[in-house]
Design brief:
Pfam families: RVT_1. The protein has 4 domains: 63 residues, no CATH class; 69 residues, no CATH class; 89 residues, no CATH class; 93 residues, no CATH class. By secondary structure, the chain is mostly helical. A two-stranded antiparallel ribbon has the order 1-4. The longest helix has 21 residues. The radius of gyration is 26 Å and the shape is globular. The protein has 15 helices and 10 strands.
């Protein structure tokens, strides 16, 4: 729970005027709350900590309150999203990883104590990432709380809705998608006779496809073995919408519904993301990877954004953002790269990716 006086101190430190501070003081103090259940109401209690729940300013004030947390970490990087905090370090030496993380974790725990915040130990864990067979073992990593109890070690965890595993295979996330999708589809099948074609298509588009499409540009480059089950899921969704036999060819189903095939659908989201990185606001740490290619020759492709692609020999490196994003953009046709409107770009990109069936 956020201490009101500490929050006012931090608002003062970022330059708020005295009148603004007085307004925020009145906004935070002298609040009461109660619980109403089945017509019965509890006694009122004074709220002397925390930001007002459900308010527009609440998340902003909390973000300001914890915004100085990364400043205490000099050996590790920190990612903040609301009350989810990730501390990470890159190194091939397990001992250095452990020392850096333990040192920074101790500083974070001290910062929480000084700011009167409580660390949720049940939701705290550590994880070791490594794609090579010679990577250090998670069992050899030991991080401790300030009371001496060990931090839980996990092979995968859910961060901001995405299941991340130690080898970046994203298999746990794909399994999660499949389980959740079939659960929703099973519920819809119980009332399939009540829905017309257009309602079935809308239900799937609004209830199920967002589950599959969430963060699909993150896991789109994983192994085809892990992505193949998603093709089966899409086929099941198509059969529900069309109410067609099991042996109906998938190309016919996607053409009838006017949907992109799974791989093209992920590419559709990916290229749109690249477009937003180039033309719209995006994090600087991503935009820095788009470096315009300069040439002394007058080339046709230089009329539109054409970016430098770094030389990378390993296949793993070719999946990285700094290689794949500019490379995929450069490979787009000129008719797409010349567009600067997101609406027009989406429409033309959909037509470009909607390939004709070549299975027969």
């Amino acid at each position: 729970m956020v201490d009101h006086y500490l929050l006012l101190d931090k608002l003062y430190s970022i330059g708020l005027s005295q009148n603004a501070l007085l307004w925020f003081s009145a906004y935070l103090h002298n609040r009461r709350q109660c619980v109403v259940f089945h017509g019965s109401q509890s006694d009122y209690l004074i709220v002397d900590k925390g930001v007002p729940q459900g308010s527009i300013l609440g998340p902003l004030l909390f973000s300001i309150f914890i915004n100085d947390l990364p400043q205490i970490c000099s050996q590790c990087s920190v990612h903040l999203y609301a009350d989810d905090t990730v501390i990470y370090v890159c190194n091939s030496d397990l001992l250095q990883i452990q020392n850096s993380l333990q040192s920074e974790f101790n500083l974070v725990q001290n910062w929480l104590y000084d700011n009167k915040l409580i660390l949720n130990k049940k939701k705290s864990c550590c994880m070791l990432f490594g794609m090579q067979h010679g990577s250090p073992n998670l069992r050899d990593l030991h991080i401790y709380f300030d009371d001496g109890s060990p931090l839980e070690k996990v092979d995968s965890f859910k961060y901001l809705g995405l299941w991340v595993d130690s080898e970046f295979s994203f298999k746990p996330h794909v399994d999660y998608i499949i389980k959740k999708t079939y659960g929703c589809l099973s519920s819809l099948y119980r009332a399939i006779n009540c829905f017309t074609f257009h309602i079935r298509k809308r239900l799937v588009s609004q209830l199920i496809l967002p589950i599959i499409g969430y963060a699909d540009i993150v896991y789109m480059n994983t192994s085809e073995i892990h992505l193949r089950p998603l093709n089966v899921v899409f086929n099941s969704l198509c059969r529900f919408v069309l109410r067609c036999p099991y042996r109906t060819h998938h190309c016919f189903m996607f053409e009838s519904i006017n949907w992109l095939q799974p791989k093209s659908r992920r590419q559709y989201h990916w290229v749109q993301f690249i477009f937003k990185c180039i033309y719209l606001d995006c994090p600087p740490y991503l935009k820095q990877f788009f470096v315009l290619f300069k040439s002394s020759y007058s080339l046709r492709h230089m009329q539109y954004p054409f970016f430098f692609v770094p030389r990378i020999s390993k296949e793993v490196g070719r999946r990285s953002f700094n290689y794949k994003a500019p490379s995929d953009w450069n490979n787009l046709p000129f008719s797409l790269k010349k567009l600067t409107s997101l609406h027009c770009f989406r429409k033309c990109l959909f037509s470009y990716l909607k390939t004709t069936c070549l299975c027969f």
